[in-house]
């Protein structure tokens, strides 16, 4: 099963930016996975942030559209999340997730954002703290 490792978290002031990275390993064919990000906060459900298939289809949570950008380097097996204009309520642990999918499988990309629990694999997470 694919293994995921996040990096890039930290603390930033409200309105600031952070870029997260997720490196995938342990599989010889990463193109069969859709990759994405979700946020976890104690006491709350996982919140899907963004997802990306291997062929360019993306999906974003409603609250982050226009501010966050998910991108994928298939040659390096890395998924990125550029987060701009961060808000204090976006503080949390950010996890990279993976789900099996075919190229241009928009249904899976959409499902990962609506319900991150569909993912078959996720990393250890990286903390993002947005100070007000």
The helix content is under 10%
> Order of helices and strands, N to C?
EEEEEEEEEHEE
Distance between the termini: 39 Å
Give the DSSP E fraction (strand runs of 2 or more residues). over 45%
Which structural class fits the helix and strand makeup? Answer: mainly beta
Structure description:
With 132 residues, the protein is mainly beta. Helices cover 7% and strands 48% of the residues. It has one helix and eleven strands; from the N terminus they run E-E-E-E-E-E-E-E-E-H-E-E. The protein has one helix at 106-114, and strands at residues 3-7, 10-13, 18-25, 33-40, 47-52, 58-60, 68-73, 78-83, 92-100, 121-122, 126-131. Strands 2, 4, 5, 6, 9, 10 and 11 form a seven-stranded mixed sheet that branches. It has a four-stranded antiparallel sheet with strand order 1-3-8-7, with no helix packed on it. The chain is globular, with a radius of gyration of 13 Å. The mean pLDDT is 95.
